Please model this.
Amino acid sequence: MRIVLIGFGNVGQGFAEILRDYGEQYRRALGFRPLLVGVATRSRGVVYHPDGLDPAALLDAIASGSLHNYPDGASLLRLPNADALIATAAADVLIEASPSDLQTAQPALHYCEQAMARGWHVVVANKGVVVQGYASLSALARQHGRQFRFEATVMAGTPTMMLGLDALAGAGITRLRGILNGTTNYILTHMESGMSYAAALAEAQRLGYAETDPTADVDGWDAAGKAVILARTLFGANVTLADFHVQGIRGISATDMALAHEAGATYKLIATVTPQGGNVQPVRVPLDDPLASVKGATNAITFSTTLLGDVTLIGAGAGRVQTGYALVADLLALR
Model:
């Protein structure tokens, strides 16, 4: 399976680490040979080799600052941009793992459309592509007899989309409730012990859970983007971010957390999704709710179903290797 990868940040590098460390095991145990033939970054180089690039050498090159440091060799091409790579490469799959833009999804959506036009499957970790381009890319996939997959966009490598679209497809899903952002859950977990919001945020930033500008996380927009993806894919709802009431956690204080605890509850940033839309907001969750016990940067989602009742999935919601594995899971599903 020949793969072109757009974006070589944390997720792309996590994917390359998996290929480096487990590629031979996949070949022996699963008969699966993922071959990374091209990698494009926005400002740190674009490389292509029809016979495959060495994941270890790619990681060494980017660690030294640029893919321009990838070793020269016969048939290696250094191209000017991602468009040139898509136009040049002989490949089967495009993986889009560049930073998400929830408002326009560009230029990632354009890359995915170009790949579909070339007859490639498309796998994305980029939430913006699904939020803005789910309908159009799904139509293109049907037109070209290819697949559009996006497991990595919700709860990293924890198989949320596969569970909802496959295992629970006939169970009658009526509602989803979930902790879909690890940064806010980490902050709220530490506030349970009496830490202030500001101190918990600073600790999350120190550990790399929160960005220097944490707005997308703490104001609820990252979780809202994932909620839109769930609504569109599991309910077929034609919704946008504007259809969701979104409220973040900035207004939650350590006093609020203490009062909730006295009442047998705790605060979580909960995304609720129904066929009509939904909301993202801090909610007092009773301590006997499975979501109340989810601590730190872990994510969780409860599928309410007609046939099975509530089914709760708990797992990693972030991490370079964890999200990289979601890309592997989608590739395995393409075989």
